[in-house]
């Protein structure tokens, strides 16, 4: 399964979300996962490098891909349970190529006006890519939300803006928490720093909701069913160094 975390707005937590979902799937669900870093800033590649230098952590493979990456993604999808793409904050060829083959697209937005201004354009991009990929399931996710109770309406209003377009908005959100930044600096995820904490609960809720399941056990059953129906190779099951692939 190919999952794209992307969008036009930078700074909305795309890399953080992609990384934590990757750990959830590989660590909690025992799935084979590869991350694809399409961002020239190399945020996810650097995180993976720090992570895979720690033998106590579940290893996750990573490649860098740019440009016309459609065929590369389809190839990776044959060898891994999940291909998770971290695409930088801009509308570019890699973003659209990813949308042309992805089953799920997560588009993080902060509940801020400058983020919400990108919704209209992303709705057009999704509509265009859906013509090529009718199996595409796209959704907006509110991230880095304020914790103060008097700011709750800001989150609700942002969701309402998104709902005026023909794209689903997740009920699950992430709040602004220091643990997200702290975990990223050391190649960790919030699930590993505090497995029972609020941030870990947010990540699990997001993953389960956009994948359309209610429990981790249900997701595990889906993964195991998919494994028995495919002939994926061993390519996705070991520790490897980061590869740089430019196309």
Quick one: overall form?
A: globular
The biggest beta sheet reads: 8 strands, parallel
Low-confidence segments = 232-247
Count of individual beta strands: 8
Strand order of the largest sheet: 7-6-5-1-4-2-3-8
List the helices and strands in order: EHEHEHEHEHHEHEHHHHE
Q: What percentage of the residues does DSSP assign to strands (E)?
A: 15-25%
- Structural class per helix/strand content? alpha/beta
Total number of helices: 11
Mean pLDDT: 88
Distance between the termini: 21 Å
Q: Helix share of residues?
A: 40-55%
Radius of gyration computed on alpha carbons: 17 Å
Please describe what this structure looks like:
The structure is a single chain. The protein has 247 residues and is of the alpha/beta class. Helix content is 44%, strand content 16%. It is built from 11 helices and 8 strands. Mean pLDDT is 88; it is low at 232-247. The chain has an 8-stranded parallel beta sheet, with helices on both faces. Strand 6, helix 7 and strand 7 form a beta-alpha-beta unit. It has helices at 14-28, 43-52, 70-77, 93-99, 113-116, 119-132, 152-163, 178-185, 190-193, 198-211, 216-228; strands at 2-7, 33-37, 61-64, 82-89, 104-109, 137-142, 168-169, 243-244. The protein is globular, with a radius of gyration of 17 Å.
